[in-house]
Amino acid sequence: MSIIKFNRDLPAVLFIILAMCMSMELYFTWRFPQSIINFACAVTLLPYLLRLKISRQSVWLIVLLILNFVYNYTHNTVSFSFLPFLNLASLIIISTFVVLSSVEFKIKLLRGFDLFMKVICCTSLVGWLLYLVGVPLPHYYSDTTDFYSHEVYYLFIVGANNIVEELLPRFCGMFLEPGHIGSTCCLLLFINRFNFKDKSNYIYILAIVLSLSLAAYCLLFIGLCLHYFLKGAHIIKYILFMGVFAAAFYVFSLTYNDGDNIFNEKIVSRLMFVDGELSGDNRTSMLFDAYYDDWLKYGDILNGYGRKAYGDGTESTNILYGCASYKRFFFINGIIGLVLVLILYWSLFYKYRSNQVWGFVVLYVICNMIRDYPFRLMWLYLFILGSVVLSLPRNAMMSQTKANSYDVK
Fold this sequence. Notes:
Elements lengths: L9 H14 L10 H17 L5 H21 L5 H19 L2 H30 L7 E3 L7 E3 L4 E3 L18 H14 L10 H10 L2 H18 L3 H21 L6 H5 L6 E2 L2 E2 L7 H13 L27 H25 L4 H16 L6 H14 L5 H5 L9
Antiparallel strand pairs: 1-2, 2-3, 4-5
């Protein structure tokens, strides 16, 4: 018997992780064409997919999955052409495999992604600390997309529009923006059951704190409350502790340096109500709000505004430019798209429902109300994997992964 046993599931795990990172446009994926990479992932996974046995119940789920991806494609693709269609077919193949794969494989995929995220977050945090203390690091300027521009430091990126005006720029690691890394870390912490006996989970906490993302701070607080409430152990103690901590943070932010500090500027001040509106509620533009209100009164609410909202893809014609919230999703996809995605997610979670999974669903819904990414593979797969893992006994994940290798069933 060979000393080193080849793990035949490793290519599948690695390619799925790559597809997840492509969906959120992490820095190291920028130079790769998304459709080609996803096609390569789909080709790699196809032999695994063909080995799977599909039950009658799974057929309905796959049909629902395909309907959602096709509907999303028709409403969010600016120009119908070969490469976008190739990307759609690839996403369907990859997602079908993830949905149908065995529980053992899902656990392995989650562990692989969790390890990968901790490695890249830790690497970025080391570079970030060097950057903050003034160590000169090689970098270059990048107009990343029509909306984003960055200073790229190779180990991490910084929003270029924040460099000059802020004493402490917000940490986003290799993600496009701080809210992306902060929200993803919150989801992973919940899936990991906030197990701080595992010291590596503090990497996520540090990334969230340094992101200075109001969304991430709120998600962390809500996630902790949901976890301990559903856990049912000493709930009053945890609520009091988190309440005292939140109050102390609030007082510190308002009083330190007379409120002239980064926590008050980026977090607390955005929780204030001004003229009846939350000052931090800036997920949509005035242009979008005008179109949205008019569409609600006179538009096709059933089918949504569709891909014409993107114009020709440029800033001047794109109604959605700089917007991210549940309103954007509803505006583009309408009632039909909303119902389709709700049925899909309900079907994905229902089989594995439990107290902790219910809490994870609430947290995930809040994530997508802030930033509507139900079809970004990273978040979609985290929902699938999290629902499975959180439905298992606490020690089941560890016992499952002590085996030398897993087969895709």
